[in-house]
Amino acid sequence: MKAILRLLLLSCTLGPTSACAQTHTRAAGTPAPQAPLAPRVLGSGFQVGDRILLKVEGDSQFSDTFTVGPGPGLTLPVIGEIPLVGVRRADVEPYMSRELARYLKDPVVRAKALIRVSVVGEVQRPGFYSLPGDAVLADALMQAGGPTREARVPGMTIERGGKPILQGDSLQLAFARGLTVDQVGLRDDDRFVVPRLAMHDSERTWRIFGIILATVPAVIYAVTRAY
Question: Which Pfam families does the record match to this protein (predicted)?
Fold first, then answer.
């Protein structure tokens, strides 16, 4: 079901734009202009306020969600602070395994960096959600129940401090390429904003809806074949 929702979301986001681009290419006989790449907003190092989901087999005191503090560093029971300076979020598991091996005998460690984002606007369940760094952007919308019938998906933005950091073609391309939270450099308290359809968008909405209806049988067939 998640795979179906993700494909429908991408169809809704990219369908009309892609179709128009192909039509223009055929008519003009020239290659369609490429959309700009989604920018790497920030590096993927840890920031104060980030969270790490840590699990150590056989040791419950280290199996919890911990918040990154100043330094940045992670303060664990008994052990104290483990520095995170220069550690990428994607590398947190091998790094924590090495650090904990200094205090524990042959620990089996699982660690994931979690980013707390909010999803607001035209989604089924607006609110705050924690995402691992390797989650694709569409997972934030799926955790929020997906867009409502009144959502203007192509107008969606990702904001930081009230200012957009990803929008338009860059954001659509990030969704289409399956870029992850870590790859686009999201931080705690970044916000997905899904706007509402305006009255003049009704015709476009029906075109998108028609594309989704045409896509559903193929998507369902592909997913059922995969399983």
Answer: Poly_export, SLBB
Query: Given this model, what pLDDT does residue 41 score?
Result: 37
Q: Tell me which residue of 103, 113, 112 sits closest to 59, measured CA to CA.
A: 103
H, E, C per residue of 166-184:
EEHHHHHHHHHCCCECCCC
Domain count, the chain: 2
Contacts of 94 (CB under 8 A, 6+ apart): none
Q: Which two tokens stand for residue 100?
A: 């904990």
The tens digit of pLDDT for each residue in 150-201 reads 999 889 999 999 999 999 999 999 989 999 988 888 888 899 999 998 765 5
Among 98, 113, 128, the domain boundary falls at 113
Share of the chain above pLDDT 90, in %: 47
Question: Do residue 220 and residue 153 come from a single domain?
Answer: yes
Q: What percent of the chain has pLDDT over 70?
A: 68
CB 172 within 8 A of CB 17: yes
